[in-house]
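Input sequence (173 aa), recorded before submission:
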Amino acid sequence: MARKQKLEEVLIYPARWRVAVNVVLYGAFVFTGFTLLATPDQIPRLIGAGVVVYFGLLLIYALRRLLVRAPSLIINSEGVFDNASITGVGGVHWHEITGIERRKNYLVHHIAVSLRDREAVVARVPIPRRWLVSLLAIVAQDSANITPGMLDRPLDEVEELLERYHAEFGSSR
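Predicted structure, token format:
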């Protein structure tokens, strides 16, 4: 099948200022978690431990994204590589994608990439990250979600790129 147009590989990097804001916010939550750990009451200490672990992981991820300049998304003729968040699913081939749409969960706009077999895609994710991706499966609703939190392009532009590449390469296999 002849291609209608030649689409170049697109690399979308994290916006450094957004990553820095996330580092500050995650750091504030970790600090708050530690203050809860210092209280004598059991319930606040349990909450503090959960906050320190969860936001500590996010803080480590954000610090790594700030220090290591790697793309958040890679879009090419093979598919999309999602490293836009700590729950990014990595490489997804165009033929594994059934739809791309804008959604809103809990006040957060994101791009929902609907998958033929989400479990097969998640099985390719490295084990530590796979646990987090599986943990958030209720929110994901059988899709891979790309959030704008660490992207240097507007979500509308990213969605348009994904739709254009999917239209071009999605049925090639």
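Checked by second reader. The beta strands are 10-12, 73-75, 79-82, 90-93, 97-105, 108-115, 143-146.
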